[in-house]
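Hi support team,

I submitted a single chain yesterday and got back a structure, but I'm not sure I'm reading the C-alpha cell output correctly. Could someone confirm the output below corresponds to the sequence I sent? I've pasted both exactly as they appear in my results page.

Thanks,
R.
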Amino acid sequence: MNITARTLPLGVIGHPIAHSVSPEIHNFILDCLEMNYFYCAYHVLPENLADAMKGVRALGIRGLNVTIPHKEEVVRYCDSLDPYAEKIGAVNTVVNRNGVLRGYNTDAPGFIMNLERHGVSVKGKNVVILGAGGAAKGVAAAVLENGAAGVRVVNRTYAKARRLADDLRDPRIRAAHSAVGAEILINTTSVGMKSDETPFTDFDALDKNCAVCDIVFCPRETALLRMAAERGFKTVGGIGMLIYQAVIAFELFTQAKVGEDIIEKLFRRLEMKRSIVLTGFMGCGKSAVGRELAQMTGAVLIDCDDYIVKTENRTIPEIFAQEGESGFRDIESRCIRELSEKKSAIISLGGGAVLRGENIDLLREKCYVFRLKADVEKILRNTAGDAGRPLIKGKSRAEVEAMLDYREPYYANCDFTVDVSHMYPNQTAKRILDIVMENGEKVAL
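Hi R., thanks for writing in. Yes, this is the structure output for that exact sequence:
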C-alpha cells in the first residue's frame, strides 16, 4: 500500500474494535481494485462518539463503518438516513460527501443477499427470529421488506420482543414464546460466539424443510448450526452477511463496483469449511502467525498447548515433570484428535506434535496443515530465556540443529511448507491465505 497525500481515508469505529475483520475485507477490495484509499479501525469509547463524528467531518474521512455499541447513538450525528436505517433506527455505514453525513444500514440487505446465495428465500415464509436487540430489528425489517408471510420474535424477555414488534409497525410481526412450524429460524443473539452453547434446541418444533440461520460468523459453524445440520436441516452461517454488508458499504464509500470475482475471492478467503493447522519447530512463530490469521479471517484461534493446559489443569512443564515426554505426547495426541473435529478454526500445534505421524495424518484428513520453517538463528532468538519450553532449555546451537535435522522428515508429511526465517507474522499469514485461495478446491473452501 503506497499512502500519499492524495490517499483517502476510510474506517470503522467501535468499542471494542481490535477483533474487527472489516479492515482486512475493505483493504483486500481496495488492493484488488487498485484504489487510492486506506481503511483503518478506530477504537472509540461511547463518551467520545460526538468528538469522533466531528473528526469525520474535520479530517475528511470519506466513509465510516459503525459497530457495537454505536449503531443507534450515531444516528443523531447523521444529516440524513436511508430508508432502512430510518426504519430500524440504527446505522452501520456513514458516507461523508463534502461534510454532509448520510447514514445507511447495510446489514439488512447484506443478510438477505447471504440467504439468496444459499438458495433461501423469505418470500411467503413463516420466520422466527431469536433475540430482540438491534441486530434482530434489522433482520426483522429485512425479511418483512422481502415478503415474509409472518415473523415471530422469540426472546428471553417477552416484553422486549413485543417492543421490537411494536416498533416496526407491521401486522405480520409479533412477539412469541415458541418456534413451532418455523420455515426459517434466525439466531441474532451472541450465544454461540465464544462457546458451544446454543440459543435453541427444540428442533422437533420446526418445519421439516426449515432453514436454520445464524448471524454469528466466529466460529463459522456455531453449535446451533452444527446441531441443525446433524438433524438434516439446511444451514446458513454469518460470514456471508459480513461480506455482503461490507461490499455494499464499500460501493457507497467509493462509488465503485465490486465485481463478482472479488466477492468470490473474499468468500474463499473467509468462508473456511476446514481448519488451518500450523506446525513447526518451537520458536518459529506459530502463535503469532495464528493470531494474524484469526484477525484476518475472523476464525477462532486454538493453541494446542493452551488447550492441553486447560483440559489437564496443569502447565506443560508440570506435565513433563509428572508424566515424562511420552506421557505428554499421549495427552497431546488425544487433544489433537479432539481438535481435528473443529471446523473453520486456526489451530496452532506444539513443536513436537509431528513426532507422532498419526497426528498429522489425522489432521490432513480434515484440515489444511502448514509447516512453518525457520532457520536456527530465528529459533534461538525467539526461545531465548523461555522457561516454558522444557525440551530446548539449556540446549546449545548444535543440539538445536540436531533436533531440527531429526524432525525434518516428520515435517515433510505436511501439506505445505512456508519459510518464515525472514518474514513477519502478518506476511506469513497473508502467504498462507494466498496458498489457501490458490488451492481452494483441495480444502473445500
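A quick pointer for reading it: Residues 316-339 form the longest helix (24 residues). Let us know if anything else looks off.

Best,
Support desk
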